[in-house]
Amino acid sequence: MNLSIPPKLYDKLVEKLGKETAIEVVEIINEVEKELSNQVVEETKKRKIELREELRKELATKEDILLVRQEIETVRQELKGEIEVLRKEVKGEIEALRAEVKGEIKNMKMLIYFLIILMVLLNKESLEFLLKILGIS
Predict the structure, then answer these.
(1) What angle do CA 35, 41, 47 make, to 5 degrees?
(2) Which end of the chain is less enclosed by CB atoms within 10 A, N or C?
(3) Is the distance from CB of 52 to CB of 44 less than 8 angstroms?
(4) Distances in Å between the alpha carbon of 118 and those of 2, 19, 40, 108, 129?
(5) Contacts of 130 (CB under 8 A, 6+ apart)
(6) Are 26 and 3 in contact (CB under 8 A)?
């Protein structure tokens, strides 16, 4: 018989109840102690499982972090693509503006030449001056 109670208590039980009844009481105490110990172990396991589940819900796991990284990389690639498209659009618009400005400059030059010619033709003195320079008169 395994005594899980102090020897003095066992001696008192034997003295008051007799040896056989004391042994039965001790065995009952041992069984109750084992059952309580098992219940404590089971309850501890349940608490650990509950705590682990709560932590998994609240804390980010390595898998969660990996998923977030993948999402960030996907967004980064999408943004790079969109930026490249915008860059090409802006470049195209700039080229179109350059061509338009070149056309406008060409028109302005032609208009200035026309005005100069018109001024020369309409101004008698400037026409004579030009003829002298060219050696025609």
Answers:
(1) 135
(2) N
(3) no
(4) 131, 143, 112, 15, 15
(5) 120
(6) yes
CB-based burial label for 20 (10 Å; 0-12, 13-18, 19+): exposed
At 108, the amino acid letter reads M
The pTM assigned to this predicted structure is: 0.43
Beta strand spans in 1-137 (E): none
Give the integer Cα–Cα distance in Å for 99 and 97. Answer: 5
Do you know the residue count of the chain? Answer: 137
Question: CA gyration radius for the chain?
Answer: 52
Q: What six digits make up the tokens of 137?
A: 């008169």
Measured between alpha carbons, how far is 52 from 127 in angstroms, rounded to an integer?
A: 102
Residues 6+ apart with CB under 8 A from 121: 127
CA angle 77, 78, 79 (to 5 degrees): 90
Q: Which two tokens stand for residue 21?
A: 């009844």
